[in-house]
Amino acid sequence: MKIIKPALILCSVLMVLNVKAQSDEKVFKTIYTQSLTNGKSYDWLDHLSNQIGSRLSGSLGAAKAVVYTKEELEKLGLDKVWLQSVMVPRWIRGTKEYAFIESEPGKTTTVNICALGGSIATPALGIKANVIEVKNFEELEAYGREKIEGKIVFYNRPMQADLISTFEAYGGCVNQRYKGAAEAIKYGAVGVIVRSMNLRLDDFPHTGSMTYDNIPVEKRIPSAAISTNDAELLSTMLKLNKDIKFYFKQSCKQLKDVQSYNVIGEITGSEFPNEYMVVGGHLDSWDLGDGSHDDGAGVVQSMDVLRLLKESGIKPKRSIRVVLFMNEENGLRGGKKYAEEAKRKGENHVFALESDAGGFTPRGFSFDCSEASFNQILSWQHLFKPYLIHYFEKGGTGADVGPLKTNSNVLAGLRPDSQRYFDHHHASNDTFDAVNKRELELGAATMTALVYLFDKYGVNPIANKDKIKK
Questions:
Q1: CB count, 10 Å around CB of 445?
Q2: How far is C-alpha 334 from the chain's CA centre?
Q3: Which helix (DSSP H) or strand (DSSP E) does residue 144 occupy?
Q4: b/e per residue, 298-333, with b = 16+ CB within 10 A?
Q5: What CA–CA distances, in Å, run from 9 to 14, 198, 266, 273, 316?
Q6: Which of 243, 283, 238, 290 is nearest to 261 (CA)?
Q7: What are the residue numbers of the active site?
Q8: Res 18: pLDDT
Q9: Is the peptide bond before 304 cis (omega within 30 degrees of 0)?
Q10: What's the pLDDT score for residue 462?
């Protein structure tokens, strides 16, 4: 049995009382100081990325990440730490893909491709066929089966460069990756090549999930992404010679579902233990890099929120959980499972915050909430402004917390600077060296500060009569 010294108890009590008496500005200062001088997020990410590596659902890396993060959360002295079982898909890439453009018999140019997540393999000897380039599904339909049958469809719609929001640019063209194969099958295509979702011109192909909808397995065709540099090359060569051929070979495979876990830790609320606040990111990643930005950064920032609350002497009123979701990338099984269990248990989730937009400099948050709640949130902007983090907008939050949405709660998404995010997203250069320590720690502190405010003032501004201390 541990013997707790009275002096230690008194010190803890005085710390909590001191935090309660402080203004919100002083609490913010404490949180940011703790994160920037005594942060753990960068060390955690170093291990997750460099010792474990990629964490595709169902893989050994994902299993190791579950064990590691659970052990680290247990070291924090939280009230509860546990695993939540969830069945996840297991897709494997197999041997490295290979592709070339054949301008005439015997004259080839090698290009960079990668299979899209969920794609089938090519035949053992690969596929070689003529290519037809389209920008969208309307062009595909206009060409029709007569011109497409037996060919490889090349989707070459770039992300819109003049949009300041790179996530908006991504959303404007990602359907060609996700549904491109399903659409091309309708017209007799034998394969699909998709321009990588990347604003930069480089040699890195970017993977990502795709779907065949309900098309029978025997009618499915292989689908791959091509780097932006090579997409430009292929497009130029097609303009010069419509008869060039494209060859690609990939050996990916879809296996049976396997068991995995969401990793959950909790600080139980002192006044409202049955009101739950969630902060999280997704533990799985794609397999090309080590998933440092997507979403190792969100995982370790979320873990550090609970640590920073404890280190700052904050005793939450409400129960605060960190949830490390499994299988966001190719199924969202973890997010759905957590929401299903919460509903089954009748848990009241009043707030959920997700970090899944990279570990770059935080700029603010987006919120899915009522106008009354958003007006309350806007009244907090002045607290974040000294840290140059005061972009507050209504909008999308996060895929994993989305299933928790109700008519009365608040969902939030951390919004870092996004201009370089898609340089790394789903590619082999999503690695630890691309994450800046200070930017990562600023994000962890920013998330902690928002959680602190919602815990203190609640999510119902009509019922809340507290005033923000200046």
A1: 28
A2: 13
A3: helix 137-148
A4: bbbbbbbbbbbbbbbbbbbbbbbbbbbbbbbbbbbb
A5: 9, 53, 21, 22, 17
A6: 283
A7: 328
A8: 52
A9: no
A10: 60
Half-sphere exposure of 180 (CA within 13 A, CB side): 34
Distance separating alpha carbons of residues 454 and 389, to the nearest angstrom? 17
CB distance 117 to 207 below 8 Å? yes
Is there a contact between 126 and 98 (Cβ–Cβ < 8 Å)?
yes
Q: Check if the beta carbon of residue 375 is closer than 8 Å to that of residue 390.
A: no
Lay out the sheet containing 272-282: strands in order across.
80-92, 253-267, 318-325, 272-282, 348-354, 410-416, 362-368, 391-394
Instruction: Find all residues with CB under 8 Å of 58, minimum gap 6, and list them.
Output: 88, 89, 90, 91, 255, 257, 258, 260
Q: Compute the distance between CA of residue 140 and CA of residue 281 in angstroms, rounded to an integer.
A: 37
Q: How far apart are CA 96 and CA 63, in angstroms?
A: 23
Residue 8: strand, helix, or coil: helix
* 227 touches 111 (CB < 8 A): yes
- Alpha-carbon gap, residue 31 to 36, rounded angstroms: 9
With residues binned 3-state (H G I as helix, E B as strand, rest as coil), the percentages for the chain, rounded to 5, are 40, 25, 35
Whole-prediction pTM:
0.92
Check: CB of residue 183 under 8 Å from CB of residue 154: no
In one letter, which amino acid is 78?
L
Locate tokens 């997020």: which residue?
41
Burial of 465 from C-beta contacts in 10 A (0-12 / 13-18 / 19+): exposed
- Where do the domains of the chain lie, and which CATH numbers do they carry? 17-90+257-457 (3.40.630.10), 94-251 (3.50.30.30)
Backbone angles phi, psi at 85, to 5 degrees: -65, 140
Distance of alpha carbon 147 from alpha carbon 329, whole angstroms: 34
Q: Among 349, 352, 336, 354, which Cα is nearest to 282's?
A: 354
Query: What are the per-10-residue average pLDDT scores of the chain (470 residues)?
Result: 44 48 91 97 98 98 98 98 98 97 95 98 98 98 97 98 96 97 98 98 98 96 98 98 97 97 98 98 98 98 98 97 98 98 98 98 97 96 95 95 97 98 98 98 98 94 50
Sign of the alpha-carbon torsion through 211, 212, 213, 214: negative
